[in-house]
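Module 6 notes. Inverse folding takes a fixed backbone as the condition and produces residue identities as the prediction. Think of it as a translation problem where the source language is geometry and the target language is the twenty amino acids. Below is one complete input and output pair. Work through it position by position during the lab.
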């Protein structure tokens, strides 16, 4: 990443990495995906040294917010994410797992589109489906899955999915 910036800039000196260079990389689309996160972080570091301006907010990671099938699932998942006392990273993981369940629900159990409609049979069907799922099933983004795509889910992944749904429904019961 840093070597690419130095190749674009005629000078090998760190102090010559100016705001215009960072802006050019963004505007010309020379980097994409997670490399934009790195570019954003690099510009912040160079700015701390006083060689350029801080990057504008929002020039780093800008991915679309995932959704999970029926809009009601998105609402429940967002509410859980907003009100949970778990760490942000764990809340995000639970939300992702809830959205995966929402996408499965939309495809396989349209009668259970609202989590409030889930009964024992809905949960049993989800567990059975989860046991047969492959990496990449019912997800919106396939980036980062690489050669795992299409392979059976590993037991820890299945356990994480079950734990997330269990935590969600337990939380719903406690808060009525």
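Target side of the pair, the amino acids:
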């Amino acid at each position: 990443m840093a070597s690419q910036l130095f190749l674009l800039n005629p000078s090998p000196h760190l102090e010559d990495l100016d705001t215009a260079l960072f802006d050019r990389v963004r505007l010309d689309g020379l980097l994409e995906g997670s490399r934009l996160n790195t570019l954003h972080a690099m510009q912040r570091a160079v700015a701390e040294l006083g060689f350029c301006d801080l990057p504008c907010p929002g020039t780093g990671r800008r991915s679309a917010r995932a959704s999970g099938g029926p809009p009601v699932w998105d609402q429940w998942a967002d509410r859980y994410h907003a009100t949970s006392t778990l760490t942000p990273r764990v809340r995000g993981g639970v939300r992702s797992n809830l959205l995966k369940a929402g996408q499965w629900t939309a495809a396989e159990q349209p009668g259970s589109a609202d989590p409030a409609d889930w009964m024992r049979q809905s949960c049993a069907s989800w567990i059975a489906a989860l046991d047969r799922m492959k990496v990449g099933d019912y997800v919106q983004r396939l980036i980062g899955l690489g050669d795992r795509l299409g392979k059976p889910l590993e037991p820890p992944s299945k356990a994480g999915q079950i734990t997330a749904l269990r935590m969600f429904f337990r939380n719903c019961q406690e808060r009525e």
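Reference fact for the lab report: Helices lie at 2-8, 19-27, 34-48, 71-83, 88-108, 120-132, 155-175.
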